[in-house]
Amino acid sequence: MSTIKNHVQLIGNVGQEPTITNLESGKKVARFSLATNEYYKDSKGEKQTDTNWHTIVAWGKTAEIVEKYVAKGKEVGISGKLKTRSYTTDDNEQRYVTEVVADEILLLGSKDDK
């Protein structure tokens, strides 16, 4: 039961080309945005789309998979956990960011997807 305390699964489309960073420690980190869509009909019966954007962070081997195979527009499945961090802006304002730290990435769509 402890594995579902902080567990996220998302399927969506990559919003921009992933940013890959090689750290001094030799570790690799990948960051990209993921759009998930929900569809519903409004009061007039017209189909509507609600898009949510998520920031995805992948480390190590998972980041290497992202670097090789993930590109803007590609449909992927993500399994991971939520992580919130804070930082201080140049104006001395405290900001908070919630990201999905990906443990697994599933490449979806056809092989021809670019």
From TrEMBL:
<dbReference type="Pfam" id="PF00436">
    <property type="entry name" value="SSB"/>
</dbReference>
<dbReference type="GO" id="GO:0009295">
    <property type="term" value="C:nucleoid"/>
</dbReference>
<comment type="subunit">
    <text>Homotetramer.</text>
</comment>
<protein>
    <recommendedName>
        <fullName>Single-stranded DNA-binding protein</fullName>
    </recommendedName>
</protein>
<keyword id="KW-0238">DNA-binding</keyword>
<dbReference type="GO" id="GO:0003697">
    <property type="term" value="F:single-stranded DNA binding"/>
</dbReference>
<dbReference type="InterPro" id="IPR000424">
    <property type="entry name" value="Primosome_PriB/ssb"/>
</dbReference>
<dbReference type="InterPro" id="IPR012340">
    <property type="entry name" value="NA-bd_OB-fold"/>
</dbReference>
<dbReference type="GO" id="GO:0006260">
    <property type="term" value="P:DNA replication"/>
</dbReference>
<dbReference type="InterPro" id="IPR011344">
    <property type="entry name" value="ssDNA-bd"/>
</dbReference>
